[in-house]
Write a structure and sequence with these properties.
Radius of gyration of chain B: 16 Å
Number of domains of chain A: 1
CATH architecture of chain B: Alpha-Beta Barrel
CATH architecture of chain A: 3-Layer(aba) Sandwich
Structural class of chain A: alpha/beta
Number of strands of chain A: 14
Largest interface: A-B, 38 and 33 residues
Distance between the termini of chain B: 13 Å
Strand order of the largest sheet of chain A: 2-1-3-4-14-13-12-9
Strand content of chain A: 25-35%
CATH class of chain B: Alpha Beta
CATH topology of chain A: Rossmann fold
Number of helices of chain B: 10
Shape of chain B: globular
Number of strands of chain B: 11
Oligomer: heterodimer
Order of helices and strands of chain B: EEHEHEHEHHEEEHEHEHEHH
Shape of chain A: globular
Structural class of chain B: alpha/beta
Chain lengths: 208, 251
């Protein structure tokens, strides 16, 4: 099996690579590339993302044909794709970080700044927070409700269809932190930095 | 609910762990990769490496340490010490650091903070402020605590937030290595001044100091070296103690 981590200059992806390689060992081939043919022929795709919504969308668009290839993979062929952090946020129609920016539009919704309630909540939301599992998700197999995951973000994904939400986390409000829509998965937290429990999510995705 | 973090810090010199008393007398005590793994297995919320003499010596050893550690530890790894430029940050991130802390360079050239947070995201840019009380204000020190800039630490903290820092790592130079507790006044003043998380550092000698750093100092995270490094307390013991004091921790 081939799992491709999309390398599109979206910031630091070393930790994502390390964690997937740790789980894959020699059984699964992990590719780190933006090569369109390799993405097309892989079984699963991981879309990481760090920095701003705009910088990630711009970086995707900078690679000719990448957005179309990813859309074909996830929307037409319906193969498993996992978005992490801004990788998840980009599923939205629109994001408001830096400036209004169009997203991939795979899951209707918007990405807005977390309401810090006049400074009551510090931003970024950095650290370990509990996830509240609201719907069974294939990537949550053997994951207990209220497990701690590592977060670092200032913006949140607000999907229109609440049925695709698989987990939320409590920070200022109930922030969407995991989604599952058919073959498309996303986590706002960083499974690659969430210790053994996070690695279990990566294991679950690889073994879908 | 977001948990307060406990961050053990490992001072590294030439690829080996050391911990200085007031930044001077160094004792050699172990392999950083193994130490970091022990901490992460023991429940550390993050690991911090501080390359203490990096400003003056060959830095390549730290890249090797970071690379090896990041393949074994799956909690956030912050690396600081001798970070001069956007290129240094890029190199550390490529080796597997999740955050980079910037001290001297943030004072000398504030563009480094602005540029790097724009390029890599605020989430990986930590500004480390070494502050010392002088009369009625705290002043920012650079070069591992050797140079006094005379800059007001509170104003500097605000400026760094505006420049795009994701977190502030605040060390009291007066307390570092003394084990008499954090400078609570400094921590709470900076924490109230900015809207980004503050990590308290410098002076921890017992577990009540960690409690005070969070409750009184209003820090989001507490960093300590000696109490963990010399086995006085484990990270797990620290977390259990904090829990009994009503502080939310990840256990």
């Amino acid at each position: 099996m081939n799992v491709t981590i999309v390398d599109y200059n979206s910031g630091n992806i070393s930790s994502v690579i390390n964690s997937f390689e740790e789980i894959a060992k020699d059984k699964v081939n992990i590719e780190v590339t933006s090569d369109l043919n390799k993405i097309k022929s892989s079984d699963k795709v991981v879309l990481p993302g760090q920095g701003s919504f705009k910088s990630c969308v711009d970086a995707l668009n900078n690679i000719n044909g990448l957005v179309d290839t990813l859309s074909e993979f996830a929307i037409i062929k319906k193969k498993p794709l996992l978005g992490i952090c801004v990788g998840l946020q980009m599923f939205a129609d629109i994001g408001y970080e830096e400036t209004e920016t169009k997203g991939l539009g795979w899951i209707s919704g918007k990405v807005s700044k977390i309401d810090n309630q006049n400074g009551k909540y510090k931003l970024p939301h950095i650290g370990w927070n509990e996830i509240n599992i609201v719907k069974e998700s294939k990537i949550f197999k053997n994951i207990k409700n209220n497990s701690h995951m590592y977060f670092v973000h200032s913006y949140e994904f607000i999907p229109e269809d609440k049925n695709i939400i698989s987990a939320t986390t409590d920070y200022s409000s109930n922030i969407v932190c995991s989604v599952e829509k058919e073959n498309i998965f996303g986590t706002q937290f960083h499974p690659e930095k969430s210790d053994k429990i996070g690695l279990k999510i990566i294991y679950n995705f690889i073994n879908l | 609910m977001l948990k307060n973090r406990i961050i053990p810090c490992l001072d590294v010199k030439n690829g080996r762990v050391v911990k200085g008393i007031n930044f001077v007398h160094l004792k050699d005590a172990g392999d950083p990769v193994e130490q970091a793994k022990i901490y992460s297995d023991g429940g550390a919320d993050e690991i911090c490496f501080l390359d203490i003499t990096a400003s003056n010596e060959n830095r390549d050893t730290i890249y090797d340490v970071v690379e090896k550690t990041s393949k074994k530890c799956f909690v956030p790894l912050t690396v600081g010490g001798g970070v001069r430029s956007v290129e240094d940050i890029s190199k550390l991130l490529k080796c597997g650091a999740d955050k980079v802390s910037i001290n001297t360079a943030a004072v000398q050239n504030s563009k480094v903070v602005a540029e790097s947070s724009k390029k890599f995201g605020s989430q990986c840019i930590v500004v480390a402020i070494d502050a010392k009380l002088n009369g009625d204000k705290w002043e920012v020190f650079t070069h591992g605590g050797r140079n006094n800039t005379g800059i007001d630490a509170l104003e500097f903290a605000k400026k760094m937030e505006e420049n795009g820092a994701g977190e502030l790592l605040v060390t009291s130079m007066d307390r570092d290595g003394t084990q008499v507790g954090y400078d609570i006044d400094l921590m709470s003043k900076i924490s109230s001044k900015v809207n980004i998380p503050v990590i308290a550092s410098g002076g921890v000698g017992n577990l009540d100091h960690l409690v005070d750093g969070i409750k009184l100092g209003k820090a989001s995270a507490v960093l300590a070296a000696s109490i963990f490094h010399y086995g006085k307390f484990s990270v797990k013991e620290a977390k259990e103690y904090l829990k009994t004091k009503g502080i939310p921790v990840r256990i």
